[in-house]
Amino acid sequence: MPGALPDGEPVPEDGSLPSAALTAVGARGFGVYVHVPFCASRCGYCDFNTYTATELGGGAGRETYADSVLGELALARRVLADAPPRRVDTVFVGGGTPTLLSAEDLGRILAGIDATWGLAPDAEVTTEANPESVTPRSLAALRAAGYTRISLGMQSAAPGVLAVLDRRHRPGRAIAAAREAREAGFAHVNLDLIYGTPGERAEDFAESLAQVTAAGVDHVSAYALIVEDGTRLAARMRRGELPYPSDDVAADRYLAAEAALSAAGFGWYEVSNWATSPDARCRHNLLYWTGADWWGLGPGAHSHVGGVRWWNVKHPSTYAARLATGSSPGYGREVLTGDDARTEDVMLRLRLADGLPLATLDEPGRAAADRALADGLLDPHPYASGRAVLTLRGRLLADAVVRDLLP
Q1: Tens digit of pLDDT for each residue in 151-175?
Q2: pLDDT at residue number 218
Q3: Contact assessment for residue 2 and residue 286, using Cβ atoms and an 8 Å cutoff
Q4: β-strand partners of 88
Q5: d(CA 366, CA 358)
Q6: What burial letters (b/e) apply to 79-118, b meaning 16+ CB within 10 Å?
Q7: Where is the Radical SAM core domain (predicted)?
């Protein structure tokens, strides 16, 4: 089941923000995230804020969900009335399984965002989808509604791995869906992979990579399996039914991904993400990684505007009920200090191929960066120009490098 929300100071009933947060909204870019919390079934590894039909109470159905999101969008417009963003650069609809909503409802939400703040002429508009939740017809309808990018949850090409993860799509369906998306006119298509699942063999992951690189997509995300407390997968491991993931195996899989993807013309631009060109990079995620502003719509969604981060109530029925009374669905918030912002900058920018400006680091951090350079974890060429960029070995140890650079 979904994990607990973090603590924080209360969000005002009207959702208002401190005046200091409104001085330069969208100066670094502005995005909108839309969370769709519905799934046909729960995958064994998932602790996202998602619900199946049997887990939902009254007032939380898919049929009225778009209206609730549009209600929060109206509240957002009021909150930012005196300092609206110049435009919306990116929209990302995630979940859950967004494509359990109709293409008409997803189109209504996008049209509402455009009417509220205006989509940039070149806005990137992404929806996530499970392979079995789309058809050529629905993909064409999404494209006609203005979606430009789709991210498909493939996870693996191996039937046994899909079974351990409780994925419902058949092997091969993700590749077929990617090709259908291209045929429908999507400019950008991503496939997600998970590696290190118990029972996954090296040849299983090699076959997944081979299928991905032959699919004609321009973006691949590959993540090591993380076992979250409270999930069915974690319970199976505690009972001894499955072994826990191996760090050594995960490292081997990452090296295999880098080798196969780079040979196929993909370049890494974030530790877990590869694209065939700069235009194929996920611009919405880059907004997150570079400290831009975004408004998160939907239950459990997080937002960040002007150094204020807040998060919504988690359950769809509570979310809908608050909006029905004109109240903010915000559950808690925090105002980031300068030190908080710098810490996040180090944590996120170091994971990017563009790297972290060394000027961001304090004196102990710069000394730690010098040590990382000597240990072969940072690339000497950008370092000489004032940027810390991870080497391949550094990417394998990215979390440890970040810890060393921060106090």
Answers
A1: 999 999 999 999 999 988 888 999 9
A2: 98
A3: no
A4: 119
A5: 7
A6: bbeebbbebbbbbbbbbbbbbbbebebbbbbbebbbebbe
A7: 24-264
Taking domain 19-289, whether its CATH number is 3.40.50.150 is answered by no
- Number of Cβ within 10 Å of residue 331's Cβ equals 21
Using a 10 angstrom Cβ sphere, with 0-12 exposed, 13-18 middle and 19 or more buried, the burial of residue 299 is: buried
Looking at the chain, the domain(s) classified CATH 3.20.20.70 span 19-289
CA distance 237 to 225: 13
The per-residue pLDDT for range 297-338, each reduced to its tens digit, is 999 999 999 999 999 999 999 999 999 999 999 999 999 999
Rounded (5°) CA angle 308-311-312: 140
Per the listing, tokens 């769709």 go with 36
62 in Cβ contact with 100 (< 8 Å): yes
Nearest by Cα to 39 from 25, 26, 27, 49? 49
Nearest to 32 by CA among 153, 140, 145, 115: 115
Q: How many CB atoms lie under 10 A from the CB of residue 203? A: 9
pLDDT digits (tens, 9 = 90+) for 103-122: 999 999 999 999 999 999 99
Residue 180: Cβ within 10 Å count: 21
- What does the alpha-carbon distance between residue 182 and residue 189 come to, in Å, rounded to a whole number? 7
Alpha helices in 292-332 (DSSP H): 316-324
Query: Which amino acid is it at 392?
Result: L
Please, which residues have CB within 8 angstroms of residue 40's CB and are 6 or more apart in sequence? Answer: 52, 97, 100, 130, 133, 168
pLDDT, tens only, 31-50: 999 999 999 888 888 888 88
3 state SS of 185: coil
Amino acid identity for residue 90 in this structure: T
Element at 101 (helix H, strand E)? none
How far is it, in rounded angstroms, from Cα 104 to Cα 108?
6
φ, ψ for residue 141, nearest 5 deg: -70, -40
Model pLDDT, residue 181: 98
Integer-rounded Cα radius of gyration of the chain: 21
Amino acid in the structure at residue 330: G
Tokens read off for 91: 């929209």
